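Review form for a predicted model. The reviewer records the input and the model, then writes brief findings.
Reviewer: anonymous (R2)
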Amino acid sequence: VDLGYHPHRLLFDKTTGDVSEEVWDVLLYLVLGDEDTCGDGGATQRQFHRAHVEGNHEVKAQIHREWYVHTLATLAEHVEEVLRELEVL
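Model under review:
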């Protein structure tokens, strides 16, 4: 994902469950790139990326609000997958 984040910033707080802004950005970027979910040929993903690079927090926040349900579902799927992998260990 080309958002310029270093992997060590993709965190969540194990005590509170809070997820870093970077994680939300990466998940949203992935959701917007999924043609089955977004269906606009990547236009919204490009708009989000441009807003990120330009520091346009208003546009980023608007897109996050519009796609929150899909982003949250992607996060939940990821957490469930990690938990299944940990059970195997």
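Findings: The longest helix spans residues 68-88.
Further findings: Helices lie at 21-32, 43-54, 57-66, 68-88.
Recommendation: see findings above.
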